[in-house]
Amino acid sequence: MPTEQFALETLFDRHPGVDVDVLRTAGHGWGTPTALLWFGDAGDVEETLHDDSSVETATLLTESNGKRLYRIEWETSVRETLETLLGGSTLLGASADDGHWQFRVLFPRHDQLAAAHDRWEADELAVTVERITELDETFGRGEFALTDEQKEAFVVAHRRGYFKVPRDVTLTELADEIGITQQALSERLRRAHNSLAESTLHLTELTEDEVEPLG
């Protein structure tokens, strides 16, 4: 959903290149939500955070590799929007970039998801649903769509220390152990990495026709 309907609109207006990752949301329910947010690739955002109408307080906790971790307490309007947006669900993750927020949430039942959709429409929230999956697809083995050959190569490479820095084994040695060429092993590992990245980070880009409608 767009930042102007939720939070940090001023921040993205002044720092359009900023990216935000929610580390954790504390508190029971949304009555007194406190979020830990990483801010990256935007320079000094502290003054802007204090000027942003969606932020009640912003406290810098630490800096690491050019990123800053802030403890954010939201204003009432953000809390109310969160209740409308996520009521009845569990927040699994959230991030923001390019003026939009993205949430990953878990609804225990289909009727709770449908009720949430009705709330979004009633409050005229501009929510775009990118993907709906069943619980076993979200947390089960089906999410990591590796072929047997890719899984074998990945497991052997991990056990033999191929992904360590520095490596304990060369690609040629691994290929000889598995019984395939070095080129075939390299391609197999790259495909496995790509599948794992898409599954765990949800990097698959959906076209407009592939976006699954809700309701």
From TrEMBL:
The keyword Nucleotide-binding does not apply. This is Uncharacterized protein. Residues 146-197 form the HTH bat-type domain. InterPro entries: BAT_GAF/HTH-assoc, HTH_bacterioopsin, RNA_pol_sigma_r3/r4-like. Keywords: Transcription, Transcription regulation. It comes from the Archaea. Residues 41-136 form the Bacterioopsin transcriptional activator GAF and HTH associated domain.
